[in-house]
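Re: that backbone. Tokens:
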């Protein structure tokens, strides 16, 4: 089996910590596309990028290997490469700092604030941990070893060199990273804890909330422990043994203990993206693992605290983003 040749080096630098879009032109045995413009029109048909790519071609902002400017009328070349930068959307700045917990030649660990996405996705592009760190630390090769929800604060790992990324990602795939989270939620004395929750969680693409499937084969497992109480408020240690989307939030909600400030569980609300008054009370507190490149035993802890523990009035479960 012949190995596919690697992509040529991009002719465009990063912009605000964001890589250019890269496309490889597919085979066209039926001769459907006479020129580059007709292929790109078909590729982006019906999407928000359709008009944008026409404009980029007209402005000479689509480049081939070596920086050659590509035009709509250029012949279609199967197997060819092209790059371009999308126009970046205006984003409200997330006014909270990223704190560096650890840095060596291979690994960067940061303490992420609430409301900052880990990587570019959807409307969050430059206001993400990855883009900001690449720019602030001048580390264009930085890449995430895993992801943390935008609404969750706490520890996130990045590989500094592209060639090291796979080794750190493999730690998570093999479940060789011990993770502990802290959450604030209502305290119900009738809920027996500690307990291990196992269920099947599924998330449909384009639907914000994940759901538990009654009677389904379990694919998510979480250890839930109560560590302290203050009136009707509980502090919980959550240890995920798997990594499904929204797993801890879904499992806490399933116990009737929806995490404070959650805008999705038990009810989806629609807080403004720049409303920072009521962060989700969930924190990635601990990461512990053996470094696959150095052999060092690491244990990192977040220095952040959850706001509602000392500021209880007005906080209710499932009402994130409201006054």
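Recovered sequence:
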């Amino acid at each position: 089996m012949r190995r596919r040749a690697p992509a040529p080096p991009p002719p465009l630098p990063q912009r605000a910590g964001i890589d250019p879009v890269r496309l490889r032109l597919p085979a066209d045995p039926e001769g459907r596309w006479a020129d580059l413009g007709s292929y790109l029109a078909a590729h982006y048909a019906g999407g928000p990028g359709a008009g944008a790519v026409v404009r980029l071609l007209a402005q000479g902002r689509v480049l081939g290997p070596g920086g050659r400017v590509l035009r709509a009328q250029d012949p279609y070349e199967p197997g060819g490469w092209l790059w371009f930068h999308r126009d970046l959307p205006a984003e409200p700045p997330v006014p909270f700092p990223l704190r560096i917990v650890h840095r060596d030649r291979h690994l960067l660990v940061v303490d992420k604030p609430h409301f900052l996405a880990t990587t570019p996705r959807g409307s969050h592009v430059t206001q993400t941990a990855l883009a900001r760190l690449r720019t602030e630390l001048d580390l264009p090769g930085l890449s995430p070893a895993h992801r943390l929800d935008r609404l969750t604060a706490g520890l996130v790992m990045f590989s500094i060199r592209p060639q090291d990324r796979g080794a750190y990602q493999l730690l998570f795939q093999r479940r060789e990273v011990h993770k502990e989270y802290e959450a604030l939620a209502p305290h119900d004395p009738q809920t027996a804890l500690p307990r291990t929750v196992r269920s099947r969680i599924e998330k449909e693409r384009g639907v914000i909330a994940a759901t538990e499937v009654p009677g389904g084969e379990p694919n998510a497992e979480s250890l839930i422990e109560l560590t302290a109480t203050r009136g009707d408020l509980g502090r919980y240690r959550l240890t995920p043994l798997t990594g499904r989307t929204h797993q801890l939030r879904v499992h806490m909600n399933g116990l009737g203990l929806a995490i404070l400030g959650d805008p999705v569980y038990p009810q989806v609300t629609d807080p403004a993206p720049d409303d920072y008054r009521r962060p989700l009370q969930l924190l990635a507190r601990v990461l512990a693992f053996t470094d696959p490149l150095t052999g060092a035993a690491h244990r990192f802890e977040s220095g952040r605290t959850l706001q509602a523990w000392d500021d209880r009035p007005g906080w209710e479960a499932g009402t994130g983003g409201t006054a």
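Residues 21-84 form one domain. Residues 49-58 form the longest helix (10 residues).
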